[in-house]
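hi! just following up on the protien thing from before. the input was this:
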Amino acid sequence: MPFKKKKFRTKLEARLDDLASQTEELRQQVVDRAPGVRDQLVDMLPDKDQLRDLRDDLFERLPDGVADKVPDKVKPKKKRSKLKRVAFLGILTGAGAAAVAAVKGRTNTPPPPPEPFPAPPKPTAPADVTPPKPAKKAPAKKP
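and the predicted 3d structure came back as:
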């Protein structure tokens, strides 16, 4: 028997029980906090597009000899440039707007008829062009 004294054994068992209960409490705290920690970690992870961009950047930095030895399924795919995507979306949006405008134009009332040109002014008799006579000055009063 390794333990000859009962007091020592009971003290060790009591400490072991305390450690077991503390461990159980810590396990419960971890279980309670796990969803929040998981969500925080998931939020910090880059999304799929960011990972692809990182992969493409890393592939471009590889020396030519190494890049040739990389398997084809790992190599980045040639994708359309962002400018082409934006241009395509612009064209698509413009076509949609034109179609909507054409449909609205058909359903609205016809445009009003154009206004006729105004009639030219009638000629009038020439006005008297004689200059006006200067007004007479009143004689100055002497003091």
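The chain has a mean pLDDT of 79.
Residues 47-76 form one domain.
cheers
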